[in-house]
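From the pipeline queue, job 12 of 40. The input is one protein chain; the requested action is below.

Action: predict structure.
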Amino acid sequence: MAHAHSHSHGRGDRTPKAGRTLRAVVAGVLIAAALATAAGLALLWPDHAKVATASSKIEFAPKGTTFPTGKIVALQNGCPGYFSSGAATSAPGDTRACQLAGVQLLDGKNQGRTVTIPVLWPYASAGLHVGDRLELVLPPQSTPGGTQGLTVNGVIRDQALWAWAIVFAIVVVAVGLLRGLMALVSLAFSGFMLVAFVLPALVSGQPGLPVAVVGGSAIMFVVLYLAHGPSVRTSVALLGTLFGIVLTAGIAQLAVTTAHLTGVTGDVGGMLAGTTQIDFRGVLTCAIVIAGLGVLNDVTVTQASSVWELRAASPALTRRQLFARAMRIGRDHIASTIYTIAFAYAGAAMVVLIVLYLYDRSTLSLLSQEDLAAEVVRTLCSGIGLVLAVPVTTAIAAALVPAEVVGAEENRLLDALKLRWYSFVPRAAAVEEPSRPY
């Protein structure tokens, strides 16, 4: 077998001519997609003048309203004397529904002054303690320097959020090393793209479908190569992801149209409709695509990695056999991912589900409600897109994987930076190791 193997592969490039041609085609497709994405960003880049105009038209509070910050210096359960009925709560049977707080104002005209205000539900049931900070609302005052009408607008949580973000970053880097660090950088870039392009483009009236495709593609081009390193394997995953994005966008557009969804939910949607040029059906289409990016990327990366690992473990497998075995992995991944998507959307819409569950109406009638119907469509469209991306990504990977895989391509960057976590392994043993999965 060793003799046959030595004759089937010569030194140098071990990729057949057909394989080299296919790689050139894939590279050309990715280059064309990158240029199209760049052109799309230029054409769809938001008009910030329209965004500023829309922002100026939205009033969340009357003019003259201020939002001072206060620190709780005293706290007691119940609010005796603050309700005409004499009740100590604002919700029947809930003794935590109102607390009386002494709050020291930290800024504004009344800085340093301590006032007593009732903390109503739901903030009274949030586990507040002395030392916590609150954002308050002070309506326009007829008396300068007065505090009449001062109420709680929210809890200031920046310290807790920063602490959890730091813990998250430490865990990711400690376990993922350089790859984990690159994942964090990729996450930051994704957030930047949403804030700098996707959201303002939608606010300025750009159509949601192209915004979703262009924005999602731009994110994936940067995120995949940053997080997984430049390699043929990453390019295969990227090509499968781009296919999934386009497919999901088309399916989402069709589903929103055929289901007659409006994309408008709650009072916020009505407020935005009166002050902006937002196409809410386009926003819903865009939301479906963006929501499915993470799980779609996960599936395509896994399939590409599976093909490479199968090749490293069994070099004698034909490409047809590689595809068949990788698809077995893909089907298992599909089965788990489908209910992962459903659970994620159910968790995000739990309050809506509770309200709808309590309605005395049939299940089919509830499914027709805008809030629930939008979540159902979101789940189905994302599911169809990722399921169809699996065989496409697997087929491309099986066609492009080298005839022999010696070491993992994605480790080249780590090798160059001398950051391989297994550097203590003798060189001879390290060469013989099969490539590690992502």
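Job complete. Residues 2 and 8 are 10 Å apart (CA to CA).
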